[in-house]
Amino acid sequence: MDLDAQKRIATLLHHRTKSVAPGEPLALEITSSATFHTPDVPGLSRIYGRTGMPTWEGLEAQLAILEDAPCVAFPSGMAAISAALFAGLQAGRKLVLPSDGYYVSRILGSDFLAPFGVDVVEIPTRDFETADFTGASVVLLETPSNPGLDVVDIAAIAARVHAAGGIVVVDNTTMTPLLQRPLDLGADVVVAADTKAPAGHSDVLFGHVASRNADFMARVLNWRRLSGAVPGAFEAWLVHRGIETLEVRLERMCGSAQVIAERLRAHPKVRNLRYPGLPDDPSYAVARRQMAGFGFLIGFELQDAFVAEEFLTRCPLIAQATSFGSTHTSGERRIRWGDKVHPGFIRLSVGLEPVEVLWAAMVEALG
Known about the structure:
Layout: H1 3-14, H2 54-67, E1 71-74, H3 77-88, E2 94-98, H4 103-113, E3 119-123, E4 136-142, H5 154-163, E5 167-171, H6 176-179, E6 189-192, E7 207-211, H7 214-227, H8 233-243, H9 246-265, E8 271-274, H10 284-290, E9 297-301, H11 305-314, E10 319-320, E11 330-333, E12 345-349, H12 355-366
Parallel strand pairs: 2-3, 2-4, 4-5, 5-6, 10-11
Antiparallel strand pairs: 1-7, 6-7, 8-9, 9-12, 11-12
Helix pairs in contact: 1-2, 2-8, 3-4, 3-7, 11-12
């Protein structure tokens, strides 16, 4: 981690102390109110629970330190993605998104944006490097892609999209701002599901949008107010608390993922393993250049669906659950959600278990 990142972490951990008066709590307080005292409305920052709440604002300030950009909080990652897309698109405009990315984003495009008159174009993540972005208003990137873990050059793509007159939105859920900084690489907007590693304990849904474009963020903020896609105070408090340990959790998770990936690659039953931290992985060169770490996600195939299910069932240290980035290791066959992957493909999210204990359990489950 470079010095700037270290300073961000230190600032994040102490960002409240500057404003806390003697005798007030150091921890962010949970303030949940639908209404506020409004004897004179003009100039008030809080009027109604849909427009703002102190606990959101505390979390947004914390996220802004990580992103080095203004942030707007949402009740889920998909709420954040929806806000960014609706803020940047209208009928007749063109959206380019990854055909191998998060399936819910694709469904949002095909089932809602396209019927509203948006031209929705899907291409594989690897093809973004050479795609023609002529006429594209918004290009949604997911790098590493989920679940295939393909990595593309954000800076190069952003330059080409900007030349074509569009904006770049990067879904940075898999990396977090500590491992990859899309805004610094030229992206216009970042969206993320803080449900994953930032909150980190599988107990809250959350998301955010970040951008240094003030006009775009004004539209995002207005979308939240008008759509009613607002987070709860308790959920914001949980994410705020989780983020304070994000850096130490990521260090353990990414370190263990590197070890597990190297060993899985050598296992005779494992095929087509993907992890950006392996020198022979197709994504390694770009990942090493634009990321501060290789992440905690591993993709690999077993012989077939039956063998993959047997492995997941037999391993006591792999929770069979969707989502990723939690304290526990989890795994699932992604084909069940419609991803275009091999029936035996498993997305593994490495958690905080001691790595040797985790590996021993996996070896035994592989048989």
